[in-house]
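User: Please predict the structure of the protein below. I'd like the answer in structure-token form so I can feed it into my own downstream comparison script.

Assistant: Understood. Taking the following sequence of 153 residues as input:
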Amino acid sequence: MNEPRFEVLPEMELVGLAVSTYPTNHPKADPTLIPELWDFLFQLINATGTEVNGRMYGAQIMDGDSLSYLASFESEADLPGSERWLLPESTYAIFEHKGRVETLGNLFDDIFNTWLPVSKKQLRPSPALEIYDERFIPDSDDSIMMVAIPLED
């Protein structure tokens, strides 16, 4: 795991599809649920002709041992059955992940179980983000994505 960079991200309004599930390392986790959610979001985007300009986000927040996950993008568009999450401006620790999306759970484990306790930083009660930009290549070991963890100032 590389060291993060710290960046203030502006307020964001994300629109997308949400699901309640478990983190990948949880015994009740369904490894197909979030990929199917993304597939359905892309089908909905295509069916409605909605434009996606820029990054896409997997926003997630823990609630006990379960996880609320939003497959999303920034937009003012309304999609049928979609949810909106308003994320406040916040300082984030941003980690880069190179590899397949299926291994992203390992980075989250490293961040929360190793980096965060040693860093002495405090989490902000806001969603963590998976950030997908033009460097994301599905099913590729060369894919690059980012994980952004909200921190108290």
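That's the full token string. The first helix runs from residue 33 to 48.
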